[in-house]
Amino acid sequence: MGAFEVDYLIVGCGLTGSVIARHLAEQGKRVTIWERRNHIGGNMYDYIDEHGFLVQKYGPHTFHTKKKELYDYICSFEQWQDYKLTCGAVWDGKYTPTPFNFTTIDIFYPKEQAQQLKVKLKEAFAKRETATVMEVLAHPDPDIRGYAEFLFQNDYAPYTAKQWGVSPKEIDPSVLRRVPLRFCYKEGYFDDSYQVMPVHSFTDFFRKLLDHPNIQVDLGIDALERLDIKKNGLCLNNKPVTFPVVYTGALDELFGKVYGTLPYRSLRFEWNYTNEDSVQPAPVVAYPQEMGYTRITEYKKLPIQQGQGSSFAIEYPLPYKEGESLEPYYPVLTEESQQRYFIYRKMADKIQNLICCGRLADFQYYNMDQALERALNICRQFDKKGN
Known about the structure:
The chain has helices spanning 15-26, 68-75, 102-108, 111-124, 133-137, 142-164, 173-176, 202-209, 251-254, 335-349, 359-362, 368-385, and strands at 8-11, 31-35, 46-48, 54-56, 63-65, 80-82, 87-91, 94-98, 130-131, 181-182, 194-198, 215-219, 227-230, 233-236, 239-240, 245-247, 264-274, 284-286, 295-298, 310-319, 330-331, 354-356. The chain contains twelve helices and 22 strands.
């Protein structure tokens, strides 16, 4: 299937692009996917390393959702196993579970003071299991507020500064709301009804998702070397594009950054192997006080795997720059960056045969279930239009 013999062109072979491709293919549409990287699966790509452990090239992913329809969808392409992610943080030489809970208080506070604080928190947030750190920081009780300030100064602030490269005051509050405080001893990073990992691999899930005669995947193709915008229209090799294009990349790059750069954060991974059977208490542990790196993921525990020793990756956040051998992972959501994004989005919306979606094109910090839901909503829009 040649590039000009398609009903749809999809740029990007991550979750959003692949789900849309499958839906269109099942509707009888001929779909070609162009992927810049040399593999399918986007940032969910995983593989067996030289030590026999399944590792994730672009950082830890687990699938979790409250919505049965999203869980049912992924189950139609892969077998899944229950997996509740546990995480932690280390500072001052002490390990605490995250989200922070009453164990955190017991670890860092003297016994009597800890007991008083836990009672106050239960009374102040009666009938609630969690609250955001922003809520607790704003509480009038000085002990409750002091607890939040302690966490903010030792974890949230230094971690945010390293991860995002900006002051916590500049970052969108939604980022700081992602990890709540628990008012109990419960552990586990998520509370969603469905928390799973693939029985085989995320890459196997994508292979099955893309296994359709109407889908062709072309790897190692940078769409922006062929696609551009001229007079509010899409052009392919300088000729007008007549078919719809689903674009999941960064919008500023599509428009030649005419209104400036949209900031994304990237990651550098330092891969390690040890003969020790365990590196840290949880699969994913944050190290807010350490210089340079933010967290370590021990893949032997994500999911639980048998084997000698353990493979783990240390994550070093850094700014994304187009043209370098880096991936744009996280949009840096500040007031200025979101205003700039809306300018690009208005330009994109004027192009009738251009559909922009996904974490990069939407300039949103999506979890996997959110990316899946966004893709399925796009598919429903296609069905309504009769495309």
